[in-house]
Amino acid sequence: GVPGLVAVMALTHKQHGRLPWARLFAPAIRLAEEGFQVSPRLHVLLRWIGPTGFSPRARRYFFDADGSARTIGSRLKNPEFARTLREIATGGEAAFYRGRIAREIVAAVRAAARHPGDMTEADVAGYRARERPPVCIAYRQRRVCGMGPPSSGGLTVAMALKLVEPFELGRRPLDVRGVHVLTEAQKLAYADRDRYMADADVVPVPVSGLLDPAYLDSRRRLIRPLRAGPKASPGRPPGVGIPPGRDGTRERKGTSHISIVDADGNAVSMTTTIEGAFGSRQWAAGFLLNNELTDFSLRPRDADGRPIANRVQGGKRPRSSMAPTIVFDAKGEVEAVLGSPGGSRIILYVLKSLVALIDWGMDAQAAAALVNFGSRNGPFEVEHGRDGPWLALKMRALGHEVTPSFLVSGTHIVVRRGGRLEGGADPRREGVARGE
User: Fold this and answer.
1) 148 φ, ψ to 5°?
2) What is the CA radius of gyration of the chain?
3) What is the pLDDT of residue 253?
4) 132-252+291-436: CATH topology
5) Is the pLDDT at 386 greater than 90, yes or no?
6) Average pLDDT of the segment spanning 287-292
7) Is 12 a catalytic residue?
8) What is the rounded CA–CA span in Å between residue 144 and residue 391?
């Protein structure tokens, strides 16, 4: 799909920026020119995926001539990307969406060896960033806000939190009853996610209906406090006529997240993605192109013939699970900023972290590092190692089907406590927590 990051950065700078636009690009230009060292994680990913499927220019950048991945510690320089950044720095977003960069994007898409696309320069030039209202709910004397459609993340997180709010989730981390109730709520929320959530500019998404107190109460009554329920069926929230079909699309995991609070108290929670690892593996103007269109349902109708809300349509944004989140305390001050990469499991990682912070009283680092678990309306997935085996045993005793999995979150958290900021960086990836 058409890249959107430059447009949203330009819109954000126009509304909130204080430094000159061009000045913001200097560190990135320097990094592109001087290069960075190949990390162990990048090396392992390149070895795992291999050079097949990469466009020739991308292959030359990431792999040696014999097809082996760039070695750990070797330096990757990208003067081509430095040129692109300079053009955007001096020409603004127009330099990206019109002119040389746009032509290179279109040429790369249309010339792709495996799946050539139909993108045009008019498609690129016509892209606009949209400012949308957040999805906010009250939870335990706090206000939790996330991103609304076309992302399903904020709304699914909000539904799950409201479903569990009347329950006691325990006062210690990984209280089994709390984990069980949260898991059952996740199953119900994911069932509705798969049925109703998509780009609200194109299809009706019943946001207020899914958060309607009476509707949530009816869904909550399906949760058995001490016994696993079956796979959840979607509900019928207020305002829905003929329900759309069920979509079982699962996103891949080529995503990044940053959480920031500055000296003035401004907060940013931003999740950005090119969808799969290395996106489409196509290269243009010094960067990889996304494969974001695979987030659409590739089937326009479900098995019963009902149109799927997240079906492919022109000018439509695909559904994602990105869940950048900001928590406000009872006084309206920022209490926590968090989010994670992780495909359709992002919702699970953010919910785990929110419950760890709010219900179980953990600090930012402990919440980020806590064992990952949850259900996408299927088996109870639990992370290998850590507390996973113990938790798996307890959840099986409650009737859950358990699947040990590699749940590689990248949660980053900033929490304000007692006038001080604390940071938490997920040890599963290469993120860091830093302050000045």
Assistant:
1) -85, -175
2) 22
3) 63
4) Glutamine Phosphoribosylpyrophosphate, subunit 1, domain 1 (3.60.20)
5) no
6) 97
7) no
8) 27
Q: Residue 37 carries which side chain, given as an amino acid letter?
A: Q
Structure tokens at 178: 């709390």
Put residue 418 in one of left, alpha, beta given phi > 0 → left and psi -120 to 50 → alpha: left
Considering only residues 207 and 298, tell me which one the structure prediction assigns the higher pLDDT: 207
Residues in the chain: 436
Q: Taking all residues of the chain, what is their mean pLDDT, rounded to a whole number?
A: 96
Residues 6 or more apart in contact with residue 72 via CB below 8 angstroms = 37, 38, 39, 40, 43
Spell out the SS3 assignment of the chain.
CCCCHHHHHHHHHHHHCCCCCHHHHHHHHHHHHHCEECCHHHHHHHHHHCCCCCCHHHHHHHECCCCCECCCCCEECCHHHHHHHHHHHHHCHHHHHCCHHHHHHHHHHHHCCCCCCCCCHHHHHCCCCCCCCCEEEEECCEEEEECCCCECHHHHHHHHHHHHCCCCCCCCCCCHHHHHHHHHHHHHHHHHHHHHCCCCCCCCCCHHHHCCHHHHHHHHCCCCCCCCCCCCCCCCCCCCCCCCECCCCCCCCCEEEEEEECCCCCEEEEEEECCCCCCCCCEECCEECCCHHHHCECCCECCCCCEECCECCCCCCCCECCCCEEEECCCCCEEEEEECCCHHHHHHHHHHHHHHHHCCCCCHHHHHHCCCEECCCCCEEEECCCCHHHHHHHHHHCCCCEEEECCCCCCEEEEEECCEEEEEECCCCCCCCCCC
The stretch 269-288 carries a mean pLDDT of: 96
Q: Is 417 exposed, middle or buried (0-12, 13-18, 19+ CB in 10 A)?
A: exposed
**Could you give the percent of the chain with pLDDT greater than 90?**
92
Dist. CA 35–CA 383, nearest whole Å: 34
Spell 85-117 as b/e; 16+ CB within 10 A means b.
bbbbbeebbebbbeeebbebbbebbeebeeeeb
The residues, any chain, with a CB within 8 Å of residue 53's CB and separated by 6 or more, are 114, 281
Q: Which of 84, 156, 255, 411 is catalytic?
A: 255
For residue 435 the two structure tokens come to 């302050």
Residue 148, CA distances (Å) to 105, 209, 261 in order:
28, 14, 21
For the chain, give every domain's residue range: 5-125, 132-252+291-436
| Residue 251 pLDDT > 70 | no
Tokens of 125: 């030039």
Task: For residue 190, count CB atoms less than 10 angstroms from its CB and return exposed for 0-12, middle for 13-18, buried for 19 or more.
Answer: buried
Tokens matching residue 299 = 């089937």
Residue type, 286: G
